[in-house]
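pasting for ref. prot 1 ->
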Amino acid sequence: MAFANICTWRASPLESAVNPSIVVYFVDGNDASSITDLQFLEATAIDTPVVIVSDIDDVNYVVRALKGGARGYIPTSLSFNVAVEAVRLVEAGGTFVPVSSLAMDGSKQEPTAKTGDLLTERQMMVVEALCQGMANKQIAYELGMSEHTVKVHLRHIMRKLRARNRTEVAVLTKDFFERPHEQKRLGADDGPH
């Protein structure tokens, strides 16, 4: 079902409209009212998964939407087929944010500096592996620890960063590991073949 705005949606007499299985909400970067409606959706997100579709490409906005309870963020530049699958993923209980929406501006280095100060060296190793897309079992194997220890580290990391899930941890720490990966790749290419 489609509605022009949140007021129209909430005023609908249809039970299926008032209690949907998922909410897909378009936020127009030029419309201040759609941005303020996001506050209402934060309350809705407690009971119903919310996916934001937006033309806003600011990583701070994406992170705010996730912290506000949205379980998906779909930029308008994403293809229709991928967007449909993203909505299905969120409806099934997952979280979706494309990597392109997480690209940080190079001038915003302050959060990553704080991240390095908050976490222990071992926690930073876990976060680096997480940012590479590794599962807990893979992280445990790579770092020579038990899977339970990885889970404990992740809980502590999420608490310190005030992140609710692995995706938020990756968003908040992405820039911290960007340069070392580039250097590692350059170093690997310089060696004998």
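and prot 2 ->
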Amino acid sequence: MSSGQFTGAADGFGALRQLARRERPLERCEMCSLGLRPDHPHLMELAQRKLLCTCDACAILFSGPGVKFKRVPRRVRSFPDFNLSAAEWNGLMVPINMVFFFKSSLENRVIALYPSPAGATESLLLLESWNDIVARNPILDEMESDVEGLLVNRLGYSRGYSAAEYYLLPIDECYKLVGLIRMHWKGLSGGAEVWQKLGEFFTSLKARSVDVRVGVPVEVKEVCGVEEQSHA
């Protein structure tokens, strides 16, 4: 290789290194255009059922009673003793073993959506079915309309290698799951990549969640200045 060719190759590698070092475009608040950190909050636009990326100041300013936006919460709760029978699950008529539910304040009903390669797809949900589930799991009365969802994952359970998972979580996590499946699904079975991504998603979700008992009421008492939980 001549010196000219070597110089050209070196310049090419230098350009590649500069390209690799370039930062990803900074995500900006959809209200004020301020640069956002990776774990920024979201607002839900109720009429369009649309998530907006915002800074902390705008999330506070544009959310609250009487406005068209609601702030999406951050907490993630898991329910290891969630009570859902096989008959109740079959009665929901969800075509896959994963679904999330949320209360729509504008439509005054509970909506059931399941992720698919085409995006979020609505499944018909009878009010009586939901009321029966809430009666056996009264913690669902705490689910905040529009911005929290109940995510049910029965993929491993249906194959016999893990328990069913139930989470009460921010609605943006539900749509993140939908986007993950839509982006990585290949062919008829989804392909190895999408199943790996699903595993990573639920591993992360479990690590961030707090286990909550749904079958036994919990009474919080203060003993010697320290909160102590006792089962009623």
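Helices lie at 3-21, 56-61, 86-92, 127-136, 155-159, 171-184, 192-208.
DSSP finds seven helices and twelve strands in the chain.
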